Amino acid sequence: MTNSIVLVNTNTGSSININTSQGEYWLDSVDWGTVEANNHTFKYVDQIGVTLYNTTLEPRQVMITGWVAREDEAEVKRMKQILNSIVNPKHTLQAIRGNYKIDFVPRTSVKYSATYKENNEYMAKFLITGYCPYPLFTDLYDNVVSVAYTEPRFHFPLTIPKDTGVVLGVRQPSLIAEVNNPGDFPVGYTIEFRATGTVVNPSLVDIGSQGFIKIGKTLESGEVVRIYTQEGQRHIVGILKGIESNYFHYRTYDSSWLQLSVGQNLLRYDAEEGLSSLEVVITFNPGYLEVEE
User: Fold this and answer.
1) Cβ-Cβ contacts under 8 Å for 216 (sequence gap 6 or more)
2) Span 225-271, pLDDT tens digits
3) d(CA 229, CA 225)
4) Bridge-based pairing state of the strands 25-31 and 15-19
5) Residue 26's closest CA among 97, 126, 128, 130?
6) Do 267 and 147 contact (CB within 8 A), yes or no?
7) Are 85 and 77 in contact (CB under 8 A)?
8) Is 81 helix (H, G, I), strand (E, B) or coil?
9) Which pTM was predicted?
10) Dihedral of the CA atoms 163, 168, 174, 180 (nearest 10)?
11) Are the C-beta atoms of residues 82 and 23 closer than 8 Å to each other?
12) How far is it, in rounded angstroms, from Cα 50 to Cα 39?
């Protein structure tokens, strides 16, 4: 049972809390809907049954029912106006449920009860209906994993001994990182190559699938390349001296749009030259079919 949700309008940043225990908006019920499967099949002549070759997931519908209740009529009107401005069918809303979130587009503006008993100067029952094009719940915050990095080993105030010196940082020795995807499905992710010196043709390899993505370019010190492999968002940008550019044409033709499989993934970074000057960070967010608070 859902006892509290936060609704955020991602276009304006406005948010409200709807819960069953306290606050300005009281939660009655939430129906998170279900996700239907669409089975794709084919059939040969005289075949018994059909052959299933693919299954896709359809969008889900959500319904949120609650109350605006105050002792002052002006306050009720004010709170209804706030709710009306947040639930905009032209905007995307984010429903936060505990440590998870899901995005949806309102199907209509807020629908209030048509009866005086449920919609008067002291209270108003409301209904919010939404359409989730991406039907999966995701973590509230992205997961960030440093695949290749230099661990700092000093802090200020800094005293450097005359004879022994001081270790400023330690390069992590392993070229392979283990990344866990706890979700229910493979997901795309963001790969960030950071050059602390000259780096030639950096790449990232998925050891399990043997797929890889490679950037055919010599990176300067301070240059950053971001590769987005998420469905519907696939693109590559580079940032050098504060200027962002399209780096899609630097992707080698035999590269793959890597995905994180469910469970453990082994990723290996590489470069033709300047490997010790390459830092690699990946960012991802698992997808869950259903979640419990």
Assistant:
1) 201, 250, 251, 252
2) 999 999 889 999 999 999 999 999 999 999 999 999 999 999 999 99
3) 13
4) parallel
5) 126
6) yes
7) no
8) helix
9) 0.85
10) 150
11) no
12) 11
